Amino acid sequence: MARDNGSEQFTRPLRRVLVGGLVLLLLAIFMIWRIDSPRVEQLRAALVDRFVPSFNWAMAPVTKAAAMIDDAQSYVRIYEQNQELRRELQQMRAWKEAALQLEQQNARLLDLNQVRLDPELTHVTGLVLADSGSPFRQSVLLNVGLRDGIRDGWATMDGVGLVGRISGVGDQTSRVILLTDSNSRIPVMVQPSGQKAILSGDNSGAPVLEFLEKPDLVRPGDRVVTSGDGSVFPADLLVGEVAQSPDRRLRVRLAADYARLEFLRVLRMRERAVPAEAGTLVTPPLPPTPELPAVQGTAP
Question: Measuring CA to CA, which of 51, 56, 74, 118 is 20 to 30 A from 129?
């Protein structure tokens, strides 16, 4: 305890002296820097020339630390810019995908506009909303219905060939039974032989040609179009071309691109006559009978 008291009595006055000397030194420096006099200005310049260059070693850690802080801030800015570029790249990829989809849709619509049809046939273009294809039923849903004048039985085409027929119409939507559906039966004609047949769907990608009168006249690659028999479909609509399956059956390779059905053209067909009574035949209208010129007789 005695030693501690003695050391405290010795260090306390020394601490006071050092603090007082430091305060006086700071006041002197302050006064020197505040006095506006040529001699004091020369003194200040001499002090700066004498002591400031020798303090470069002391300022080196501060300079290095400031440089490290600047580098760290620049790295942070680079990271933020990189993240922003990643977000913009992701948005650009989404825009690119949307642009490609619009380009494909535009190409489909252009294909539809280039299809040449009978001038008397009008059409309604519909967007494919859903594909309900299954092993037992193959159909698609369109966004056109009764409000657009759609009727059951009307033919539908894509940009190249026949796709199917309307089977079921709602107020705003309608269902299209595809040619590949097992319930699909349409009359067709094979060109150039002129052989008529029935195209029967069997839930495969190539429907079967049935009831050919002379199968020997049909060759793979022959063109298949609608025959127009029974007023089921308009005549001369492209269906596809003949192909022979491994089981030696004649099938039709469809011209329509079933893998990318986006837009379909529904053909407005003439209303078919409905029999008023049971047993009445529905026949096409007879051509007008030409009037015969009057024969001038001779007087008796």
Answer: 118
